[in-house]
């Protein structure tokens, strides 16, 4: 039996063939040379797209930000990217290597707040983008268009605490409450804190365990991780990062300030009842349902994800569908705002919460883009030409009602470096193991390696046993025990992991 270390080497050797293909080398050269728009066709599965992105990131060292249509697309991309990142790096745990920036896809005009888990994920990712240099980011198209706080303000929302340095515990408690933490004794889950005398317990997002911080006056005397079940300390730390639980740093007086501004903004008597429902809480410095969608009235949220991406390469998964989705989203937001206003309820315009189409188009034009298009640019050019012939008015977010037409965020008339990378789907055998084994043997005769990615060690072992019954020798990886490098010349290998789909890369002589 081969170890994980063995198969990592085997898989890395197989993946090295991917980087040696002419398609990959030309794509890598285009990115390194700074080509503004790079269009790639032929990568028909999400798993092979994730492989290409992971390889490119590893070879360039740049941040690659993958824009997907909506939150439902994040899970598959995340699983595939993490698998490939681990495979390329020879690691078993890559949870912190792929950042996720979801969108608050709840209706801003429904009078309810975004889901707390979404707020936490967004705040943690933005914090990590400010504090660290990640390699891979996944975000939705709506998250790309969403307005938020500037990076420097987000940095102030969290804290970096170091032993023997000064930090007022009173200021820290105030800061924790302002950025979404809840006071709870004892601390038992992420987002909670407690303080007893000079001892503060807090569990920050992104940290595996809560920490206990002891102060001597304003000086941090010690920082220790502790077990939330036993409350016993487990490890001494020199420093700890306290990421915010939400993007907005909002204190009680901010709600009172909002109430004053809201009375000026919605002074028309028809808004009286809706305004009263909110200001009854805000005047007392208390939050109310849906305040996150209204606080931008007095809180500067003129930054966007673009401000956090630095010199990131922007990878857009199917630009045409992203464009269409945002067009629908923009129009739906405008419709919902008009409906809310017609019902005498208070709301901020869509363009106060999101970039409008012109702003988004401009920001995209200033970035290096890699377009992943199944059918290539030719099909997209035809679609855009037909849309132009329709002569329908384009949607201007927050401006005026329009027909749902493409926003042309990714215009095909702009010159692009185009690449076709031929990928094939793998055959489904439906239990015909003899045919599978015969195809593996034939592929091996032509220098092709077949790799099985199975969801459990038991299945990885079982597939190699079954193949052995048909005279196909395969190695398997299910443990972390270091041993010798396995024989990479074997026709098949099995490892443990999860991918969304298999594929065949003929130019790399690889079947997954």
Structural overview:
With 512 residues, the protein is α/β, with parallel strands linked by helices. The protein has helices at residues 4-20, 22-32, 46-60, 74-89, 116-131, 141-145, 151-157, 169-178, 252-265, 272-282, 319-342, 350-353, 357-365, 376-390, 433-445, 457-468; strands spanning 37-41, 64-68, 98-101, 136-140, 159-162, 182-183, 192-196, 199-202, 211-216, 219-226, 233-237, 239-242, 313-317, 369-373, 417-420, 449-454, 474-476, 492-496, 504-505, 510-511. The strands form 4 sheets. The protein has a 7-stranded parallel β-sheet with strand order 3-4-2-13-14-1-15, with helices on both faces. It is globular and about 75 Å long. Mean pLDDT is 90; it is low at 1-7, 391-395, 398-402 and 480-486.
The low-pLDDT segments are 1-7, 391-395, 398-402, 480-486
Q: Give the rounded overall mean pLDDT.
A: 90
Spatial arrangement of strands, main beta sheet: 3-4-2-13-14-1-15
Q: What is the number of helices?
A: 16
Structural class: alpha/beta
Distance between the termini: 20 Å
Total strand segments: 20
Rg is: 26 Å
Helix content: 25-40%
- The fraction of residues assigned to DSSP E strands is 15-25%
Cα shape? globular
Assembly form of the protein: single chain
Largest sheet: 7 strands, parallel
